[in-house]
């Protein structure tokens, strides 16, 4: 039985690699590799934005939180959807019209400062490697029902998404994201609904789970507010803040054919995530009703799939989970490559190469491989999925959120305001995460962001304002 599942998943891997290899024919320049030639229409823009979030945290982490906490496991998914909606409303149009490569291009343009660019790019790169590692780690739980060593499976999956990303860049990422999203949108609802049927339906699930030793009790388990407002904000806030500054999302906006496509794609993707976010959670809850207490809660969804679905359908749904993980991993990988190639090599180390698109393309492919391998090593030693994601989001967004978002909304921000805000916010975020200070019920990222905001405004009021380019004044 495991062999049948394994053959189906291998077949899926082969198809995805084939699509990525096919997409490589569209890559003639570094712009094609990093931004799909800025030619994505609404459907592809929406699909790749949604797929970027529909990964290990959303699917495997959502299933794990659904198993552990019930309906309040929806918090992470809610944050992803709301974040993309805010991105569409606030930043998509004004930044897409600038025809940039990275979000840190905007930071340098806005503050006339290479220091701000470098600080933002370094923090973003650290976050990206951490988030890719979380996706690689999620494959370990997904592959348990195939009889494959989790470590071996993680290595194989990583090699695959590194390969097709290095071959075809953003074109390969976008086309494979679209295929993977279709599989996910079919597979996850099927698994969740059949799992609930196996558990006897909603009322039977409530009775079964009420008899288990549930932390907080069954009433909290079946309530969206079961974990309380502080935890809700502690999960949702970092995700929303990251969405508004994440290079992986801006790369998709910059790849859209125009600013209206970028805006509408972000809004539609946000709605899709809000709608589909309930299914991993419901699957995790069904798994708890069926299996009771299990030691490895990250395997809740794979166990459900193994027990309640026919062999062939189960393999397809496993492929859907792997698709979700890989769609996020490849998106982040190409985003990290953009930082290394554009922000460090072209803009700082070797500006003379800016017109040599073939050499930039070769460098981009090399760094795609290097970053993927770094994430793999990190993943093999990582703890829980959601915890790594929240750590990565917090470290980046605590410092960079205010200079990006207030840079758009307020023209009074200065270079020194941005530099000190990044330093203060990042230190405050790290201090909260490490337990060096306590912010009480206030989420670490919100407290650190507030500190960053105060520093940004105060320092900006007392330092010379930069010359803001005309295109940013519109």
TrEMBL record:
Parts of the chain that traverse the membrane: 6-28, 40-61, 73-95, 115-134, 154-174, 181-204, 224-245, 266-291, 303-325, 366-387, 393-410, 417-439, 445-463
Membrane association type: Multi-pass membrane protein
Coiled-coil annotated residue ranges, if any: none
Main location group: membrane
Localization in the cell: Membrane
One Pfam family linked to the record: SSF
Listed GO CC annotations: plasma membrane
CDD domains registered for this protein in UniProt: SLC5sbd
Record's keyword terms, sorted: Membrane, Transmembrane, Transmembrane helix, Transport
GO terms, molecular function: transmembrane transporter activity
Signal peptide positions on this chain: none
Family recorded in the similarity comment: Belongs to the sodium:solute symporter (SSF) (TC 2.A.21) family.
Protein name: Na+/solute symporter
Organism name: Dethiobacter alkaliphilus AHT 1
Phylogenetic placement of the source organism: Bacteria, Bacillati, Bacillota, Dethiobacteria, Dethiobacterales
């Amino acid at each position: 039985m495991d062999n049948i599942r394994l053959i189906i998943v291998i077949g899926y891997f082969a198809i995805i690699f084939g699509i990525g290899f096919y997409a490589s024919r569209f890559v003639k320049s570094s712009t094609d590799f990093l931004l799909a030639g800025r030619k994505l229409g609404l459907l592809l823009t929406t699909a790749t934005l949604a797929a970027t979030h529909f990964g290990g945290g959303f699917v495997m982490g959502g299933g794990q939180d659904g198993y552990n906490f019930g309906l309040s496991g929806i918090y992470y998914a809610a944050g992803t959807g709301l974040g993309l909606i805010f991105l569409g409303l606030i930043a998509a149009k004004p930044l897409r019209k600038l025809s940039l490569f990275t979000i840190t291009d905007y930071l340098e343009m806005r503050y006339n400062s290479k220091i701000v660019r470098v600080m933002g790019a370094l923090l973003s790169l650290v976050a990206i490697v951490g988030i890719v590692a979380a996706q690689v780690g999620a494959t370990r739980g997904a592959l348990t029902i195939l009889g494959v060593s989790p470590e071996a499976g993680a290595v194989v999956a990583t090699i695959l998404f590194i390969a097709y990303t290095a071959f075809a860049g953003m074109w390969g990422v976008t086309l494979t994201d679209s295929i993977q999203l279709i599989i996910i949108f079919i597979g996850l609802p099927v698994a969740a609904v059949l799992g609930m049927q196996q558990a006897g339906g909603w009322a039977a699930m409530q009775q079964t789970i009420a008899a288990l030793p549930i932390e907080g009790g069954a009433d909290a388990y079946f309530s969206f507010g079961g974990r309380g407002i502080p935890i809700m904000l502690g999960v949702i806030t970092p995700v929303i803040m990251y969405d508004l500054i994440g290079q992986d999302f801006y790369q998709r906006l910059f790849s859209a054919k125009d600013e209206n496509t970028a805006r509408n794609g972000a809004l539609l993707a946000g709605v899709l995530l809000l709608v589909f976010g309930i299914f991993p959670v419901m699957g995790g809850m069904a798994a708890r009703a069926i299996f009771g207490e299990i030691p490895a809660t990250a395997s809740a969804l794979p166990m459900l799939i193994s027990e309640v679905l026919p062999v062939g359908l189960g393999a397809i749904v496993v492929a859907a989970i792997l698709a979700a993980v890989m769609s996020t991993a490849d998106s982040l990988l190409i985003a990290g490559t953009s930082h290394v190639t554009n922000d460090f090599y072209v803009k700082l180390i070797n500006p003379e190469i800016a017109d040599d698109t073939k050499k930039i393309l070769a460098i981009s492919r090399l760094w795609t491989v290097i970053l993927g391998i770094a994430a793999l090593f990190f993943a093999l030693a990582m703890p829980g999925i959601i915890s790594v994601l929240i750590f990565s989001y917090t470290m980046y967004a605590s410092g960079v959120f205010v200079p990006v978002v207030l840079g758009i909304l307020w023209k009074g921000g200065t270079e020194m305001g941005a530099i000190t805000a990044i330093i203060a916010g990042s230190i405050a975020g790290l201090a909260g995460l490490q337990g060096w200070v306590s912010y009480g019920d206030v989420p670490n990222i919100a407290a650190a962001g507030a500190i960053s905001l105060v520093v940004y405004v105060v320092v900006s009021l007392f330092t010379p304002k930069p010359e803001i380019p005309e295109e940013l004044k519109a």
